[in-house]
Amino acid sequence: MNFRGLVIIIAATLAAVTARRVDHDKLGPIPQPDPVTISEKAAIKFKPQLNIVDGCVSFPAVNDGGDFSGGLKGSNGNSACDDTPMGSQVYGRAAWYNDKWAIMYAWFFPKGFFMGVASRRYDWSSAVVWIDNPDFATPAILGLSTSTSDDEYQRKSPAPDFGILNGVTPLLYRSISEVAGQPMLDYSSRTGDFQPLIMWEQLTDAARETLNTFDFGDAQVPFNDANFEEKLKKAFHSKLIHLIAY
Asked: How many domains does the chain have?
């Protein structure tokens, strides 16, 4: 093993050792930084509003120090997670995929549900906003994909008119349907709430390390290094190839 490889392993080990499990309601959100890059500006421009219909509201998953949420046992409905006393968070990551610019937004939940019943510790939901080019003067939405389970996405290309406010803000709602199985995100005509956005590259090394290595069980982090590209593959709609503008 070369010296650089050894340093990386030692750094990862130290991060894992120093990261702490924190009560789900004691972990505060990371403030939304001022955007600097074109990618960051586009991510804020197209940030969705989220309306929580039922189940838990979204919570922060990690902090700058790499500390992570302890979550909640999969029992007792939305007890202890119907309000977030320290505020929520939305995580983002963006990249080119099949010549379209994909912006993924992800929300963390301290417990998961199945058929409307609390069933496990931890859950994630995510949405992908597909645009033509973040470098354009007026980039346009081409499509919208929303997670319907741990592994599947509902895909709309072009994006539904009623679900886009003023041409830039996707309106989403999350429901723990007793019929659909796992909680799902869907398009909405109702406004919701914004959460502070932190992009992958804006996170500290410690926070990224936790998101890359901590075991959230079946609730995989959709935007970490191991899962991001595969999630984009599942969220991509073939109709996007031929779309030019929203």
From this structure: 1
Sign for the CA dihedral angle at 138, 230, 32, 83 comes to: positive
Q: What is the pLDDT of residues 8-18, one digit of tens each?
A: 444 444 444 57
Report pLDDT digits (tens) over 176-227: 876 667 899 999 999 999 999 999 999 999 999 999 999 999 999 999 999 9
Please compute the mean of the pLDDT values over residues 138-143 and round it to a whole number: 96
Structure tokens at 34: 């001022």
Rounded to 10°, the helix 3-18/205-213 angle is 80
For residues 221 and 35, give the distance between their C-alpha atoms in angstroms, rounded to a whole number. Answer: 23
Say whether pTM exceeds 0.70: yes
- Token pair 């914004």 is found at 194
Give Cβ neighbours of residue 125 (< 8 Å, ≥ 6 apart): 58, 106, 107, 109, 146, 147, 174, 183, 184, 185
Look up the domain containing 159 and give its range.
3-242
